[in-house]
Design a protein that fits this description.
Elements (H helix, E strand, L loop, with lengths): L1 E4 L3 E3 L16 H4 L15 E2 L4 E2 L6 E4 L9 E5 L4 E4 L5 E4 L6 E10 L10 E2 L2 E2 L2 E9 L5 H4 L6 E11 L7 H4 L11 E4 L16 E6 L10 E13 H10 L29 E2 L7 H5 L5 H13 L7
Parallel strand pairs: 3-10, 4-17, 13-16
Antiparallel strand pairs: 1-2, 5-8, 6-7, 6-14, 7-9, 8-9, 9-12, 10-11, 12-13, 15-16, 15-17
Cofactor: Zn(2+)
Keywords: Glycoprotein, Lyase, Metal-binding, Zinc
Pfam family, one: Carb_anhydrase
């Protein structure tokens, strides 16, 4: 079951997995026909190769309520496949070429392992350490189940997450609560905060747009994806809380299993068009700087800590 919308609305799907070689994203089509990549052509995620056209109509999005502190409490939950922050009413996404107003319902994360990157989308074939998805539902629909029957029923804002040495204080409002949701089925309450504080506020007009699908079963092709060029930056220790302290099994399981590599494989775009926003950089020089693998970056981190790497380098 996948939690998508308040109040605790679940889509009735069987359980699925990522890391188990007997059950991985490539085999989802066996249990979920709509996840079969050869039967449908609008699957996500995709690789952003930056060979795309600029669309002058794709201006800044309107993020209503993202700068405000909402009433009540939010729920942070480990569903065994990701960590989800279920937000209350009061936030909406519109503009930027979206066909309607979309009410924001939750955000969640995808990551790799202690020595591997784990974003779902890639940039010129390179994967970021993590990716955050802010999920919103078209306002005309009463629930997510109905929205999934609409080709543009959901809007997902995708943010790459990269790693630096300093903590992201705003991100700490989530990462500091992760110990309370370490195991599948655990949840905790979070005091609401301005969601905009997590986002690259000064670069929100630089993004890419395409039509795709959910990246988890039932893989419904009902998503307008907006992927932002500029990443969110968190610290090594904040990322390690995801890669080392979150488990896909329940606390009393006979063998607890770390939740690693919870991303779906890349799909071809086929005849789909990927658009760049009016203010997107759209230059290959931006993507040519290699995104170092998590393993390489971790080795540099160790060298710095042990004094084997000169501070002047």
């Amino acid at each position: 079951r996948t939690l998508l919308s308040p109040p605790f609305l679940y889509i009735n799907v069987k359980d699925y997995c990522y890391d188990d070689p007997q059950c991985d994203p490539y085999s989802w089509g066996d249990s979920f026909p709509s996840c079969h990549p050869l039967l449908d052509l609008h699957h996500s995620p995709i690789n952003l190769d930056l060979h795309m056209s600029r669309n002058s109509s794709l201006g800044p999005l309107r993020l209503e309520g993202f700068d405000s502190v909402q009433s009540g409490l939010w729920t942070l939950r480990n569903d065994g496949h990701s960590v989800l922050l279920q937000v209350g009413a009061g936030m909406a996404v519109s503009g930027g070429g979206l066909p309607d107003v979309y009410h924001t319902i939750q955000l969640h994360f995808h990551w790799g392992g202690p020595a591997s990157n784990g974003s779902e989308h890639t940039v010129d074939g390179r994967r970021y350490p993590m990716e955050m998805h802010v999920v919103s539902m078209k306002s005309i629909h009463p629930n997510v189940s109905v929205a999934l029957d609409d080709p543009t029923g959901l809007s997902v804002l995708g943010f790459f997450i990269d790693v630096v040495y300093a903590d992201n204080l705003h991100f700490g409002q989530i990462s500091q609560k992760l110990s309370s949701v370490a195991y599948k089925g655990q949840s905790t309450k979070i005091k609401p905060f301005p969601l905009m504080s997590l986002l690259p506020r000064n670069n929100m007009s630089q993004y890419y747009r395409y039509h795709g699908s959910l990246t988890t079963p039932p893989c419904s092709q009902a998503v307008l994806w907006t992927l932002f060029e500029v990443p969110i930056y968190i610290s090594w220790s904040q990322m390690a809380q995801f890669t080392s302290q979150i488990f896909s099994t329940e606390e009393d399981a006979e063998q607890v299993t770390p939740l690693h590599n919870n991303y779906r494989h890349i799909h071809p775009t086929f005849s789909r068009v990927t658009w760049a926003s009016r203010e997107a950089r759209l230059v290959r020089g931006w993507a040519q700087r290699p995104l170092a693998s998590a393993g390489t970056l971790m080795m540099l981190h160790v060298l710095v800590l042990t004094g084997h790497l000169s501070a002047g380098l």
